Amino acid sequence: MAHNASMEEFEALLNESFEMDTPEEGSVVKGKVIAVEAGQAIIDVGYKMEGRVDLKEFADPGEQPNINVGDEVEVFLRSAENARGEAVISREMARREEAWDRLEKAYAAEERVEGAIFGRVKGGFTVDLGGAVAFLPGSQVDVRPVRDAGPLMGLKQPFQILKMDRRRGNIVVSRRAILEESRAEQRAEVISNLTEGQNVDGVVKNITEYGAFVDLGGVDGLLHVTDMAWRRVNHPSEILAIGETVKVQVIKINKETHRISLGMKQLQEDPWDLVAAKYPLESTHTGRVTNITDYGAFVELEPGVEGLVHVSEMSWTKKNVHPGKIVSTSQEVEVMVLEIDQAKRRVSLGLKQTMRNPWEVFAETHPEGTEVEGEVKNITEFGLFIGLEGEIDGMVHLSDISWDERGEDAIQNYRKGDVVQAVVSEVDTDKERISLSIKNLGGDKFAEAVGGVKRGAIITVTVTSIEDGGIEVEYEGMKSFIRRSDLSRDRAEQRPERFSVGDKVDARVTNIDSKSHRLGLSIKAREIAEEKEAVQQYGSSDSGASLGDILGAALKSDND
After folding, report:
1. Does residue 363 sit in the same domain as residue 428?
2. Which positions fall inside the S1 motif domain (predicted)?
3. Do 298 and 246 fall into the same domain?
4. How far apart are CA 371 and CA 360, in angstroms?
5. 20 vs 427 pLDDT, higher one
6. How many other CB atoms sit within 10 Å of the CB of residue 72?
7. Residues 70, 48: Cα–Cα separation, whole Å
8. What is the pTM of this model?
């Protein structure tokens, strides 16, 4: 009985000894390098167990392995024995376990960790953090996109852990966060030494469409394209190049956002200080067209001084065309200064003012009565437009087309493109109008016909047409119209139908319009005038004679 108890105690002690001496699989154990051969290190992990580890597992990315016989190392025991009776161990897995413990502590404390970029993967890079592999997204490599990451490969540098999941084996790190932090410190120091209005030297770091970023020694400032020169700059690359050293002035510093606005033109003399003296009103100058818009063209008078030629000031004759059809970019043009607004830094220029008004030229060279020839440019409901010298038009009104036909009928004989002859009737330079007449070719028949007729005269006309509103009559070949209200002083007799075509009618001349070639006629006015004359000759208000007696006497006198 006692013998059996002692055997059980011995077996328990033996098992306890085995458990204490034999390392547990899946744990990190210490071992000693006993040999290095065939690219492998042979390591004794105790309890007469040996294993092999490839030498590359002892090397950091991009470096040679550093392991010698006698070195003590930690390895991960994957299995106590394989088919060859050797322990299956891994230095890499041991480093990983060790690294994860260290990295978790650093992540919790928001501390930086050291690592080296050793590979490129989709969307970023792989980083060795001393045994654990992390993912570095492409957007987290630098504060600006990196085109070539070659110089960064294998270089030991600090990283910030953004997130990690040990169960899934995921670690995401950022190099950009480290750079931004140090950059912010450096930026704050540099900005504290800058003042608005200070002149500093900087290096052009980047060029965009709207300006350039200039490095002022650790902090970037924006040099906007409008602050590069007093003149118009279409693109910053016209005057700057990357890497160029430039002198700039600090225009504004935003202490909260640490943004710095820079200027180059502020170091030069403002050409606008001399504009009023150099460009007096109504003076003419030669400039270069720099930009064309829908509303006009910008003309550079000198570097830094531009003026606008509004579309309305570009041409005397081309009223509704795009400025690009009158001038072109880079064209040299002569302009006149119309207005200067010093406060708004604006100069209003005129292009047409450098050329004579074509209507004034036409009036000088074509006095009234001059015969002209031109092409029918347009036909409207009120007349014909004829193209004349100097790219201007003259108008033939309906009433000036024909003596014999009504204007509405006469205009049907013309087509666009017809070449016609006409006579200049009137030129109004202020309103830019030229009146022409086709029917006056060969002389003014109206003037000839009514040359001896005066206003108030009684003439005999022939009825040529009966209309609802009155009657059309003719005198010496000239057509006129007597309105219904002028057909008689007696309202009951104001009926056009009481007349017939061919009737001879006496009418009083109430108006002579030489411009419209019209006679104003009235039968009513004739009757009133005759009655007034009869009263004066044959009676008075106190004679006692009746109106019938007076008219009877007047008629008898006429018969005699």
Report:
1. yes
2. 26-92, 110-176, 197-265, 282-352, 369-439, 456-524
3. no
4. 17
5. 427
6. 9
7. 16
8. 0.44
